[in-house]
Write a structure and sequence with these properties.
five-stranded parallel sheet, 5 strands
């Protein structure tokens, strides 16, 4: 009986992983939202967010999880953006240290500005968990739209991210840790 239960659990895990792998985020086309949020931590995210902002697809952008010593002028130079964009339209969130706190930091920023829709720009492998955290932190009144940056993750990265997603989903379901 125990062997059957373990076999069913393993089969469910593998099926879930297959669904997770085939439903990773995709790049979003032209779609207006009130705001953009870009969690730091991977290549292509910030440049994608800036391109979307410059295209007029949103009013403002938060780069969540920037190091406390990062200054707007450094990012302006690195990403070829005029510094005026940081004065009007790009905010640096410096409180977040992980995906969960990215959600909390973003939720506070969204409430401060009264936004009703947010474009989440992150890596495709990170999208399910980042969207879960952000949706959980924002609640049902704010729409979260995913805009994935394609990075072609390795198999091991997908397995680790799937495990993190499962753990966090269970924690939210059972009301553990926020």
């Amino acid at each position: 009986m125990l062997v059957r239960l373990l076999a069913v659990a393993a089969l469910l895990y593998l099926l879930g992983f297959a669904l997770f792998s085939f439903s990773l985020g995709r790049p979003l086309g032209a779609r207006k939202t009130d705001a953009i949020v870009v969690p730091t931590g991977g290549p292509g995210r910030i440049s994608r967010g800036i391109a979307v902002l410059k295209a007029g697809e949103a009013k403002r952008m938060l780069i969540s999880g920037t190091a406390p010593d990062v200054r707007p002028i450094e990012l302006a130079i690195e990403y070829g953006v005029e510094p005026r964009w940081f004065a009007c339209c790009i905010d640096l969130g410096q409180e977040a240290v992980d995906t969960r706190s990215n959600g909390d930091e973003t939720a506070e920023w969204v409430r401060t500005h009264g936004f009703r829709s947010v474009r989440l720009v992150t890596a495709e492998w990170h999208m399910p968990r980042a969207r879960l955290e952000l949706t959980h932190a924002l609640g049902p009144d704010v729409e979260v739209v995913g805009d994935a940056v394609v990075t072609h993750p390795r198999f091991g990265m997908l397995v680790r991210e799937y495990n993190k997603y499962l753990v966090r989903r269970a924690a939210i379901l059972f009301g553990i840790g926020g």
